[in-house]
Amino acid sequence: MAKGLELPVNMLVVIAIAVIVLLGVVALYLVGFGGPASGITLQSITTNACQDLLRAGTCSDANAVFSVQIPKFDANKDGTSNPGPGKPTATSKGQDNLGTLCINYYAATYDTTKLNDFREACNVRVCGCSS
After folding, report:
1. Are residues 54 and 75 in the same domain?
2. SS3 (DSSP) at 96
3. How confident is the model at residue 34, as a pLDDT?
4. Predicted TM-score of the model (pTM)
5. Helix, strand or coil, per DSSP, at residue 89
6. In contact, 59 and 53? CB cutoff 8 Å
7. N or C: which end of the chain has fewer CB within 10 A?
8. Does residue 84 contact residue 78 with C-beta atoms inside 8 Å?
9. Helix, strand, coil fractions of the chain, as percent rounded to 5
10. pLDDT at 86 over 70
11. SS3 for 69?
12. pLDDT the model gives residue 91
C-alpha cells in the first residue's frame, strides 16, 4: 500500500514545483525586468523627434531642434511634461523639445556663441543630419 502512495506524492511535488516556476515566469513577464524599458523609450522618442526634424528639412539650423516639441516626456528634466519651443536660459530649463533632449540626455552643450558645435552635437550626431 505504501508504494501506491509514493507515485501520486512524487507527482504532486513535481506539479507544485512546475506551478511555482510558471508563476515566477508569468510574474516576471507581467512586471517586467526593469532597466531596458527606459532606454527603449528614450531611443524611440529620440527617433521620432529626429524624424520630425528631418521631415521639416531644417537640419542645417542649430536652433531648429528647439521647435521640435516632445509631448509626454520630460526632456528638460524639470519634473513635468511641458512641450514647447522654449530654449534653456540662465533662469529656465526650457521646454520639452529636441534641443533640451540633446542637452539633458546626450550631453550637448548649448551656447549661443557656439551654435555650430551644438548643431554638430545634436543635429548631426544624435539625429544623423549631414554635416
Report:
1. yes
2. strand
3. 54
4. 0.67
5. coil
6. yes
7. N
8. no
9. 60, 5, 40
10. yes
11. strand
12. 77
**Structural domain range at position 73:** 38-126
User: What is residue 40's three-state secondary structure?
Assistant: helix
Cell numbers 524599458 correspond to 37
Structural domain count of the chain: 2
Single-letter amino acid code for the residue at 26: V
As a dihedral over the C-alpha atoms of residue 25, residue 30, residue 35, residue 41, rounded to 10 degrees, the angle is 140
Alpha helices by DSSP H, the chain: 2-31, 36-56, 98-105, 115-119
Are residues 86 and 23 located together in one domain of the fold?
A: no
Distance of CA 50 to the CA centre of its chain: 14
d(CA 93, CA 82): 11
How is residue 13 written as a grid cell? Answer: 511535488
For residue 66, give the DSSP letter: G
Choice among 16-30, 37-51, 70-84, 115-129 with the minimum mean pLDDT = 37-51
3-state secondary structure of 80: coil
Judge whether 128 and 113 are in contact, CB under 8 Å: no
The β-bridge partners of 96 are 83
Residues 43 and 86 in one domain: yes
